[in-house]
Amino acid sequence: MDFLRYAEQSAALLNTEIADVDALVAHLTGREWLHSQCTDRDCMLLRKFQRELRPVFEAGEAGDVEGVVEGLNALMVRHPITPRIAHHDHEDLHMHVATKSASVAELLLGESLLGLATLVCDLGPTRLGVCSAAPCTNVFVDTSPNQSRRYCSDRCSSRANVAAYRARQKAVAGA
């Protein structure tokens, strides 16, 4: 299990509108083996999880270490994780979160929580953030070496930089 990738996927999950099974399938690009297992119940559970997880990212953005830790701990109690060592490739032993009988929602929840918990322990709780570009409210995982990420995407970063440049130009022209 690549914990960093799962932490980043948890942010992507939080930024996805899961209105129906088709939206969930679209979110699972690259994981086609899960598409046929997606149900309306998975969508409902994931929407609920999104509402529960968002405050953890908001706490990270605010520098609230206790909020991140307590939030993740509460979610791990509510959604127990069962890690397992995968040995389908004897050369590359790695961790998986749930057994084959887990639903798509249970699998995504487990991956998100274990990935975020590991990231928070390894890199710190302030690596979770909310995009600074108005009106965007997307979340992100900051893996930059100097913990300087402020935007969820290059698009939001560019848009904010252009807006700031135009504001400076307007101020210079008005002076």
Protein model, in words:
Pfam families: ABATE (PF07336), zf-CGNR (PF11706). It comes from Nocardioides koreensis. InterPro entries: ABATE, ABATE_dom_sf, Znf_CGNR. The longest helix is centred in the first third of the chain and has 22 residues. This protein is 55% helix and 7% strand. It has one domain: Orthogonal Bundle (Jann2411-like fold). The model has no long low-confidence stretch (mean pLDDT 91). Helix 3 packs antiparallel against helix 4, helix 3 packs parallel to helix 5 and helix 4 packs antiparallel against helix 5. The protein has six helices and four strands; from the N terminus they run H-H-H-H-E-E-H-E-E-H. A hairpin with a 7-residue loop joins strand 1 and strand 2. A two-stranded antiparallel sheet has the order 1-2. The chain has a two-stranded antiparallel ribbon with strand order 3-4. The termini are far apart. The chain has 175 residues and is mainly α.
Please tell me how large the radius of gyration is: 18 Å
What is the straight-line distance between the termini? 56 Å
Question: What is the count of β-strands?
Answer: 4
Structural class: mainly alpha
The top-level CATH class is Mainly Alpha
Shape: globular
Organism: Nocardioides koreensis
Pfam families: ABATE, zf-CGNR
Domain Zinc finger CGNR: 127-169
InterPro entries: ABATE, ABATE_dom_sf, Znf_CGNR
